[in-house]
Amino acid sequence: MHWTLALGSLAVGVVVGLTGMGGGALMTPMLVLFFHVSPLAAVSSDLVASAVMKPVGSAVHLRNGTVRLDLVRWLCLGSVPAAFGGVLIERALGHGSNVQTLVQHALGIALVVAAAGLFVRAYLRLAERARNRDGSREADPVGPPELRVRPLPTVAVGIVGGVVVGMTSVGSGSLIIIALMFLYPTLRASELVGTDLVQAVPLVASAALGHILFGDFKLGLTGSMLVGAIPGAYVGAKLSTRLPSALIRRALAFVLLASALKMFNVASSTTGVVLVAVVAVAPVVWMVLRRLHGFSALPWREPRADLRKPRAPLDQR
Q: CA-based angle 121:125:130, to the nearest 5?
């Protein structure tokens, strides 16, 4: 039992419980950068651990009826074979240092996409808030919303996401959910998350099976991860109603970007300069976007709802 790894996995599990994302995007880089696990072994072990954990959140959404099973079917038609195929692509490349470098760089690209995806999701939420405020957003339908399914683009998203997840373990909660946002902008947030979680179960299971058969799966490594990650996810879910998830997502994006730079073997000095530049520029960009949508540049300066008692009508004063 690797207790230090279990503690690290506990921290990752808390983030996953708080935000619903960041499992593979945090766990795999942690294994590579801090525990010096080879990239292929890190991907293999993380995927098997995810295959154990994914069904838990999916069951909740299925019970609540927040899953578009029609979209899940089309996504899985592409993602399940593609995830297994992603493992076979790595297998065909061999097990030498070249394939380890390839996996590491592919993981870096996936992390950059995941960090960008967090920004895109935040912006889409901001735009939705503006529509709600202005009354330009259509009311949510009663019962299952009308949605025109687009089979070919949906299968294509599944294929791309499946290959990425099979090769890097990153993407089931970031790449695919962003693609769904653009393909189906009328999906409600709960349905978006629920659909993504449920489609990720067979996707991750397929990738995990491929890595058990052809990858570099380490049972002891996976066991240590689960010992920490499962209670961490539970604690994070309990804290999710008390802590500002938006702030945590921003910190998560920062960590993902830093991890991506290290996956490309960027020098520490250069990494520091890039991260400082992001910290300086990103808040300014976000304040400009808030102003363009009619909000205060600083969220704590937004006028709060008037909680005082309503004033009496003029004829009763």
A: 150
Residues 50 and 190 occupy one common structural domain:
yes
Q: How far apart are CA 47 and CA 208, in angstroms?
A: 5
Q: How far apart are CA 316 and CA 25, in angstroms?
A: 61
CA angle 218–222–227, rounded 5-degree value: 150
Measured at the alpha carbon of residue 45, what is the angle toward residues 41 and 47, in degrees to the nearest 5?
Answer: 120
Whose CA is closest to 256, among 246, 242, 271? 271
Q: What is the DSSP letter of 146?
A: P
* 3-class DSSP state of 40: helix
Tokens standing for residue 204: 């991750």
Domain, as residue range, for 164? 3-137+145-265
Task: Tell me whether residue 305 is in a domain.
Answer: no
pTM passes above 0.85: no
Fill in the DSSP letter of residue 300.
G
End residue of a domain, out of 265, 285, 312: 265
SS3 content of the chain, % helix, strand, coil (to 5): 75, 0, 25
95-138: pLDDT as tens digits: 666 777 888 888 888 888 888 888 887 887 788 788 777 665 45
Residue 143 is classified by DSSP as S
